[in-house]
Amino acid sequence: MAKIMDSICEAIGNTPMLRLRRLTEHYGVEGEIYAKLEYLNPGFSKKDRPALQIIEEAEKSGALRPGQTVVELTSGNMGTGLSIVCRAKGYPFIACMSEGNSMERARMMKALGAEVVLVPQMPGSQKGQVSGEDLALVEKEAQRITKERNAFRADQFQLASCANAHKEHTAVEMWEQTDGGIDVFVDILGSGGTYAGCAAKLKELNPEIRCYVVEPETAAIYAGKEAVNHGAHKVQGCGYYMDLALADRENMDGYIQVSDAEVVDVARNLAKLEGTFVGFSSGANVAAALQLLWGKEKGKRIVLTLNDSGLKYLSTDLFENF
Asked: Residue 206, SS3?
């Protein structure tokens, strides 16, 4: 049994790994999918890890002063992680989020003591489908508030600590939990930190591991495709159709595109078949793994993350009429 914790921060990480046996049988593929249950972190997402890493590295370097306000843009998951970490460590936190993201996230951050600034979407944007253009508006507001409050910017798109969280912890846990039995890693790009950290570490442990970038089919910039419908799609927090500072193309062995329909179908079956109640991006990761097991990676062992809880999407159509 684990010892008694003195801070909620100690509950971050060391998430279980689940073999998705029922799902692979349902879809009739050969091979195995190992899913890291990141939605079991205290903030119900994988973003708790970089939230803690960013704050702790900033504390050590002196970039973050005692009691200083922390600011970051978020689709909700990083904001929730930072809300938890900042509350535990005594920093005021301001989250900047697009109005296009699900409102469960804003309510959760507020409940955790954060100040939440909601930024209107670009004219013509669809609620629930946040584009790179929408994110640019949120970035502008985050920059304004950071300057105005003389705050520390916990920039998940730029700070190496975001990738370090996954290189030093998530990927190492994956390796240990599978006894090194990994052929493939897949991940949908949000800030790029999970992909960058896990791909770098897994290739360091075994250069033969192949790493695939997952993108929405309407916003597949890394696959070299033109954006469709301004890059709009349902996978919140991912697929912004923009180059990412943390994403290293040298560690990209291939590119997979997933449709909204695939994502929804797989996310629903993850709940129904495996008892894993997760959101759109988790469905995207598993949909990509299924594509590979049907094709070039038939019979292989694929590792991925289930990124956040389905509870954050009850106001969307993900589980509507389900």
From this structure: coil
Evaluate whether the domain defined by 48-153 bears CATH number 3.40.47.10: no
Q: Supply the DSSP symbol for 16.
A: -
Q: How many other C-beta atoms are found inside a 10 Å radius of the C-beta of residue 196? A: 25
Nearest-angstrom CA–CA distance, 173 and 13: 9
* Structure confidence at residue 1 (pLDDT): 66
Q: Quick one: tokens of 186?
A: 């897949």
pLDDT in tens, 196-208: 999 999 999 999 9
Sheet containing 152-153: order of strands: 115-119, 93-98, 70-74, 152-153
Q: Which of 142-154 are b and which e, b meaning 16 or more Cβ less than 10 Å from the residue's Cβ? A: beebbeeeebbbb
- What three-state secondary structure class fits 152? strand
pTM: 0.94
> SS in 3 state form for 230-256?
HHCCCCCCCCCCCCCCCCCHHHCCEEE
Query: What CATH number was assigned to the domain covering residues 8-40+169-313?
Result: 3.40.50.1100
By annotation, the residues acting in catalysis are 47
pLDDT tens for each residue of 52-82: 999 999 999 999 999 999 999 998 899 999 9
Torsion of CA 314, 320, 321, 322, to 10 degrees: -70
What pLDDT does residue 270 have?
Answer: 98
